[in-house]
């Protein structure tokens, strides 16, 4: 694809100004769109049909030529922009120079749980956008059927979260529901057992292989406070990850990675 960079869009071009507003939650709600930056996220957005407009600097156009060719095949508008315009669209110190404005990709919980899911990640009250994106990426890598963010969580479609997901936001169903008990009810209706991570859980992960062969929804708590006692009491089992060294605990993304991996492994063995 050949682009004319003799008169690129600037940071004052209305289309760029409107795209920059998508960095804020209020802007995303008003426009019913969101913006992603970087090779993986933009490539996935274009390939899955979520992207509506792509903005690219001259240097990035040379670097990501294959993505722009795909834009042509998918009917995605590509706009040349100046380096200053790129900085206005980015929330990073060093911008990659390629961005996509996308239609919303979040699912309802009911739709995300259709089709007899066997493994679902349920982060509860996740507050850090980078963690939200990493949790989506981990779930995608482990072959989970969906990610359901429950409670008052950060927006999975924020630019930081989307970037941390490395494109996985577009690969599997991601839902968000502020009512945690409603989420639990829908998980049970979908035939999933509910396991909650807890430092004092009665089940040690090393001894849980038989349990993990069943269709499972994993609850992962807030980065700072974990899961509350009421929510832990609503789970079918509380599972602890054994820590054999001197570390006091694991961070959220690491705990989720371990639990989802063990579930995926147990389910794969059971299906042989």
TrEMBL record:
For this UniProt record, the keywords arranged alphabetically read as follows: Methyltransferase, Transferase
InterPro entries, alphabetized: Alpha/beta_knot_MTases (IPR029028), MRM3-like_sub_bind (IPR053888), Ribosomal_eL30-like_sf (IPR029064), rRNA_Methyltransferase (IPR051259), SpoU_MeTrfase (IPR001537), SpoU_subst-bd (IPR013123), tRNA_m1G_MTases_N (IPR029026)
Q: Which GO terms describe its biological process?
A: methylation; RNA processing
Q: One GO molecular-function annotation for this sequence?
A: RNA binding
GO annotation, cellular component aspect: cytoplasm
Superkingdom per UniProt: Bacteria
Q: Tell me which residues make up the RNA 2-O ribose methyltransferase substrate binding domain.
A: 35-108
Report whether Membrane shows up as a keyword of the record.
no
Q: Which family does it belong to?
A: Belongs to the class IV-like SAM-binding methyltransferase superfamily. RNA methyltransferase TrmH family.
What protein name is recorded for this chain? Answer: RNA methyltransferase
């Amino acid at each position: 694809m050949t682009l004319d960079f003799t008169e690129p869009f600037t940071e004052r071009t209305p289309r760029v100004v409107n795209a920059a507003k998508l960095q804020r939650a209020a802007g995303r709600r008003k426009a019913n769109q969101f913006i992603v930056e970087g090779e993986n996220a933009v490539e996935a957005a274009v390939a899955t049909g979520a992207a509506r407009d792509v903005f690219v600097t001259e240097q990035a156009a040379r670097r990501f030529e294959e993505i722009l060719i795909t834009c042509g095949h998918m009917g995605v508008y590509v706009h040349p922009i100046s380096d200053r315009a790129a900085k206005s669209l980015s929330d990073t110190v060093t911008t990659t120079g390629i961005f996509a404005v996308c239609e919303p990709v979040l699912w309802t919980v009911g739709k995300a749980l259709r089709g007899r899911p066997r493994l679902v990640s349920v982060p509860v009250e996740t507050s850090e956008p980078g963690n939200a994106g990493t949790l989506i990426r981990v779930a995608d890598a482990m072959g989970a059927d969906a990610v359901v963010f429950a409670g008052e969580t950060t927006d999975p479609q924020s630019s930081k979260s989307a970037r941390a997901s490395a494109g996985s936001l577009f690969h599997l169903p991601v839902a968000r529901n502020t009512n945690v008990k409603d989420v639990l009810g829908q998980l049970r209706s979908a035939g999933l057992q509910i396991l909650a991570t807890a430092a004092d859980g009665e089940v040690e992960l090393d001894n849980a292989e038989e349990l993990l062969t069943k269709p499972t929804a994993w609850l992962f708590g807030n980065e700072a406070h974990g899961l509350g006692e009421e929510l832990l009491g609503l789970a079918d089992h509380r599972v602890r990850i054994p820590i054999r060294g001197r570390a006091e605990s694991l961070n959220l993304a690491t705990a989720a990675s371990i639990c989802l991996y063990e579930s995926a492994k147990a389910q794969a063995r059971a299906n042989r």
